[in-house]
Amino acid sequence: MRVSLTDRCDLACVYCRPSRNDGYLEKRLGDEAWKSMVRALVKAGVTRVRITGGEPLLHPRVAELVAFVASLGVEDLALTTNATLLEGLARPLRDAGLRRITVSLDSLVPERFWRITRGGRLDRVLAGIEAARAAGFEEMKLNTVVLRDDNDDELPALVEWAWARGIVPRFIEVMRIGEGAHLPESKLVGHDEMRLRLSSLIAPGEGTRDPHRGPARYVPSRRDPRLRVGFITGTTDTYCSTCDRLRVASDGTLRPCLATNDGVSGMELAQRGDVDGLVEAIGEAWALKPDGQTWKGCTEDTAADVSMRAIGG
């Protein structure tokens, strides 16, 4: 389950939101309602939780809420962040019980990073990554959305940079969701082209998925099988038939798919602390999950109407 802590974000990446003034949800779950939702998720059988946003580190009590999830005994607790605020929060998050962390980083060139994120400071993100390394998370990953003529020439440099720091780099095809649907089709760099650009660094073969860890396929390094690179296709291969995820938006909507606004409202139930009612709602949301044999995920027309930021990617 991907649980959105807030729909707010301090960046405006070109593939995610149209501007910094695109508006936010009118209502979001308060802390106690959010805790009721997570209790229900665990009661419903969820064993893996990833905390997302918007940008989750903007929540003033993010470490406290991470500690709450950890106290429920979930098998896996992870968080995705743009790392602009990570330098001061890495240690508190690790102490709170966060096990794994994924950082979004689309360029190692400050001017490019500023342009892609519409104003982000690369130095702050790199400082956050170093703080996370020092905090000793069990696993760190790097997510890069690959955009032609923006950062597609940086793939080898990003891989070497991540490997040198014990981080697993992952490359993501731009998805035609929300703002991504408005980008020119030429911006898409497909998985096969990414692999070709990295052919001197990674071994041949399609790669393998980590069990119960999402859609990424990992390919080992040519020089050291302990090193690897992940690829998330989304557009050239929608992988819907293997999707086992639900999402909770920050307004409590239980969403069965990233590529549609369909969902089951859980806000009132969460505000009342009705855990059993939420368990039923989770089952209803799961029943709405599209048929992965015919559904084309992020290539469906409905995906253009979804706000990636609002539901946590």
Q: Number of DSSP strands?
A: 12
Average pLDDT reading: 92
The outline comes out as globular
- What share of the residues lie within helices? 25-40%
Order of strands across the main sheet: 7-8-9-6-5-4-3-2-1-10-11-12
Outline the low-pLDDT stretches: none
| N-to-C span | 12 Å
Largest sheet: 12 strands, mixed
Element-level helix/strand string: EHEHEHEHHEHEHEEEEEEHHH
Strand content: 15-25%
Structural class of the secondary elements?
A: alpha/beta
Query: How many helices?
Result: 10
Work out the radius of gyration. 19 Å
Any chance you could write out the topology, listing elements then pairs?
Layout: E1 2-4, H1 31-43, E2 48-52, H2 62-71, E3 76-81, H3 86-96, E4 100-104, H4 110-117, H5 122-135, E5 139-146, H6 155-164, E6 168-173, H7 191-197, E7 208-209, E8 217-220, E9 228-232, E10 247-248, E11 253-255, E12 264-265, H8 267-272, H9 275-287, H10 308-311
Parallel strand pairs: 1-2, 1-10, 2-3, 3-4, 4-5, 5-6, 6-9
Antiparallel strand pairs: 7-8, 8-9, 10-11, 11-12
Helix pairs in contact: 1-9, 2-3, 3-5
